[in-house]
Every structure is written in C-alpha cells, then in structure tokens.
Amino acid sequence: MLAYTYIRQGEFRLLDKPKPVLRDTRDAIVRVTLGSICTSDLHIKHGSVPRAVPGITVGHEMVGVVEETGRDVTHVRPGDRVAVNVETFCGECFFCRHGYVNNCTDPDGGWALGCRIDGGQAEYVRVPHADQGLSRIPDTVSDEQALFVGDVLATGYWAARISDITPEDTVLIIGAGPTGICTLLCVMLKRPKRIIVCEKSAERRRFVQAHYPDVLLAGPEDCLDVVRRCSDHGGADRVLEVAGTDDTFRLAWECARPNAIVTIVALYDRPQLLPLPDMYGKNLTFKTGGVDGCDCDEILQLIARGQIDTTPLITHRFPLRRIDEAYRLFERKEEGVMKVAISAE
C-alpha cells in the first residue's frame, strides 16, 4: 500500500509498505477513505517532535471504513464508517477514567498515530484500542464533514470545554488557522456575549469575516486596544491561544482581565517565559494542552444536527499519490489554503 513516511528530519516520502495487520485483540484495521495534513505533521518533519519515530507512516487526521477487528473489539465492526481519534487511550487507567485521555498510561497512549506508530496518510491504518479510538459516523454525515472530528475539531471542543465559558463572557481567540476556526466554532456553541478573533493574516481575517460575520476581528498590533474597548472589565474574560508564537503567548495574558482564564491550545516550537513580575496581581488561571479527545461521539452528533460545520475549511483536495504537492501547498500557505483533504481511494 502507499504510505507517506517520515524518513529523517526534513524529509517525508511516499513509499510502498505492507498493509497493516492486527497485533492485538483490541486492534482494528481501517481502510482510509479521506485524510488531511496537520501543522503537527510539519512539526515532525522539521524535528520539533522528538518522540516521533523515523520510518513511521505520518498522519493522524482521517476517516475510513473498518475492514477487520480483533476479537475483543465490540463497539465497531467491519463495514462501519468511522472517525479516527488522534489519541490512543485504553479507557481503563486512572487518567482515562478521569477523562484525561491524552495522559493514558498505555505504551501506545496519547498521541501515537502518525508519531510513534504508523498513522493514516496511507491506504490502511491499524488503530489500537479501537473501541476507544474509533467513532461511528452517522449515515447523514459525510466523510468531509467528519474529517476533522478526531483532531482539530476535538481540540477546539476540548479548549472551549475547559475554558468554562459563560453567556456573560468576552472571549478572545488568538489565531484563525484551522485549529483556531475549529475552536471558534466550539466557542460559538457556548453563546458568549462577544467573541473577538485576533489574526495576523489579512487573508484569514477575510475568511473569518466571510463565514462568521458576527465575530469581531483584530490584528496583533491593535488587539489589546480592541479587547479593552469591547470588553466589560478591562480585558477578555477568557483567552484561547491557538497561534503558538512568542508574541501571541505574551499577547494572551496581556489581553486577559484580572482573574481570567487563559487556555493554551497551541503547540509551541520552544519554551515560553512567564514574566511573573509583570503579571503580578492579575491572578490568572492558565490551562494548557494537549487535547483530551474524548468527545468525538458528541461532536459527531452536533455535526449531524447541523450545529457544527467545518467543511468550509477544506480549500484543496488531492489524491494520496500527489501528497508531496499537497504538503508543499500547505506548508507554504499558498492559494489561500486552510485544510487539504487527501483521498486514499
């Protein structure tokens, strides 16, 4: 089968690999019908994910059809259309039982697919702990509608959930890339008093304006002024930082009112500083990632009811054999790309 493979730092390559087989009674083999490229894949390519294993098939955003299951898999069966969770989790350890599935103590726990074990930018993928990591897609939901459920949409949903948003809040979202838009969609479900999106790219600000006209917009240079002018207590009640740069990390706590919640959604390339003397007296609560992707079934029901729609994010489509081209487009942010759908069929 064709599989996009991490060769070494700076190099991915499309290779012919053996089709995966069941290794455990809780595994499932999924025939991938649609996948996507995530910024985390680029982090692997550029050496920013030390735990990534050279030789693995990359990719952790995918949907497909169950082809085979181990004898202990009970929640899905061959023929089911499924969304694949970015995280592998046993469902039984202390962290899983408390909903902290990103910290699952299983050897394959956490972000494994496309990082430490073979992922889904391929024709087939083996999914450990399939009862936990696969969610059946409702018949009324298309593959494109479900494509982001297991990763960026689960991230946005998790971020909105742990931010404890109320109807009285002013919410600032920093970053309007794909994860930022998914976070916006999930924040909108909470119906806060107002939402402000800060984004550097004029092209992405136009995307937000076109699709979500009720959202207030700012650039980094005027974000603090906009937040102070449009909030009720001198700053945002909730800040969700989805951009992941040194400047946006500082902007996040600067824009927060005293006693606000700052949720760090982004994955940073390098350590960030907490300048505590500057922050003294703000009494901020920081909540940090990574995502606990345990809400996928609920998210699929929201999609089925028309309450979430991420299909506008799919701006480009490529077959798997042209995945090199898709990566170049995505990495260079050309042609207004937001997300790329990769068809394995």
What are its keywords?
345 residues, alpha/beta, Quinone Oxidoreductase, Chain A, domain 1, Rossmann fold, 2 domains, 6-stranded parallel β-sheet, 12 helices, 17 strands, globular
Task: Explain what this protein looks like in three dimensions.
The protein starts with a strand and ends with a strand. Helix 6 (178-188) links the parallel strand 10 (170-174) and strand 11 (194-198). Helix 5 packs across helix 6 (178-188). The chain contains twelve helices and 17 strands. The chain is an alpha/beta fold and 345 residues long. The chain is 27% helix and 26% strand. The mean pLDDT is 95.
- Parts with pLDDT < 50 across at least 5 consecutive residues: none
Total tally of structural domains:
2
User: What is the averaged pLDDT score?
Assistant: 95
How many DSSP E strands? 17
CATH architecture of the largest domain: Alpha-Beta Complex
Number of helix segments? Answer: 12
Name the CATH homologous superfamily of the largest domain: Medium-chain alcohol dehydrogenases, catalytic domain
Order of helices and strands: EEEHEEEHEEHEHHEHEHEHEHEHEHEHE
Class computed from helices, strands and strand pairing? alpha/beta
What percentage of the residues does DSSP assign to strands (E)? 25-35%
What is the name of the CATH topology of the largest domain?
Quinone Oxidoreductase, Chain A, domain 1
> Judging from the principal axes of the Cα atoms, what is the shape?
globular
Major sheet characteristics: 7 strands, mixed
